[in-house]
Design brief:
0% strand, 4 helices, 78 residues, mainly alpha, globular
């Protein structure tokens, strides 16, 4: 998936979310109140960031099924 497809998929998923708390957390993640704030990632978020870095470095692509699984796991953790 390219960047545009990923953005569209995220937007499509967000359209169905009615949980105000979850939506506020997503906004905070994307745009913290304090731009100088240091975000502390949990273990799963750190692992996902490391995986992404390795994927970018080694040009690994994930299947859509794998991305959907990781998306749902990430969203349920919030």
């Amino acid at each position: 998936m390219n960047t545009l497809e990923l953005k569209q998929k995220i937007m499509d998923m967000l359209k169905s979310v009615d949980d105000v708390v979850l939506l506020k957390q997503i906004i905070h993640l994307l745009q913290p109140d304090d731009p100088n704030e240091i975000l502390h990632l949990n273990e799963n978020e750190l692992e996902m960031a490391k995986d992404h870095e390795e994927d970018t470095l080694f040009k690994n692509d994930h299947s859509e099924e794998q991305l959907e699984k990781e998306d749902s796991e990430w969203i349920t953790e919030l």
